[in-house]
Amino acid sequence: MTLTLIKNSPKRRDKLVIMAEIVNIARKGTSKTRIMYKANLSFCQINEFLSLLSQTGLLERSAADGKVIYKATQKGLNFMERQQQIMDMLNEDVWVYRNGMKAPLFDY
């Protein structure tokens, strides 16, 4: 499952979108460095997000061969799926009918 953002969205990502991206990256377990690079986050940002996601039970932290591994929990996978459903729903609602023609909800 890959997360898709709303078309014409601003360049900045919402914190919930970033959290879902991190959970997605850590589905099968991976290192902090890999998450940081794949999510395009700074060292300070990744530390904050990993701490939050671990405290809320969306990620679990374990050690394997002397390395710290982060892996998505079932709660985290459920969060990611729900986040994607919301994004899909918003993508559908971006279009409205004006004067009988389908047009963007907002004029960018």
Attribute tags:
single chain, 108 residues, alpha+beta, Arc Repressor Mutant, subunit A, two-stranded antiparallel ribbon, 47% helix, globular
Question: Could you outline the blueprint of secondary structure elements for this entry?
Answer:
Blueprint: H1 15-25, H2 32-38, H3 43-55, E1 59-64, E2 67-72, H4 74-93, E3 95-98, E4 101-104
Antiparallel strand pairs: 1-2, 3-4
Helix pairs in contact: 1-4
Notes on the structure:
By secondary structure, this protein is of the alpha+beta class. The chain has a single domain (15-104), classed as Winged helix-like DNA-binding domain superfamily/Winged helix DNA-binding domain (Arc Repressor Mutant, subunit A, Orthogonal Bundle). Helices cover 47% and strands 19% of the residues. The protein contains 4 helices and 4 strands, in the order H-H-H-E-E-H-E-E. It has a two-stranded antiparallel sheet. Strands 3-4 form a two-stranded antiparallel ribbon. A hairpin with a 2-residue loop joins strand 3 and strand 4 (101-104). Helix 1 (15-25) packs across helix 4 (74-93). It is globular, with a radius of gyration of 17 Å.
Summarize the entry for a quick read:
The chain has 108 residues and is an alpha+beta fold. The protein has helices at residues 15-25, 32-38, 43-55, 74-93, and strands spanning 59-64, 67-72, 95-98, 101-104. Helix 1 packs across helix 4 (74-93).
Give the full name of the CATH homologous superfamily.
Answer: Winged helix-like DNA-binding domain superfamily/Winged helix DNA-binding domain
Overall morphology: globular
Q: How do the SSEs run, as a string of H and E?
A: HHHEEHEE
Radius of gyration, in angstroms, nearest whole number:
17 Å
Beta percentage is: 15-25%
Helix content: 40-55%
User: What is the CA-CA span between the terminal residues?
Assistant: 29 Å
Taking all residues together, what is the mean pLDDT? 82
Structural class: alpha+beta
CATH architecture name: Orthogonal Bundle
Low-confidence stretches: 5-9
Biggest sheet overview:
2 strands, antiparallel
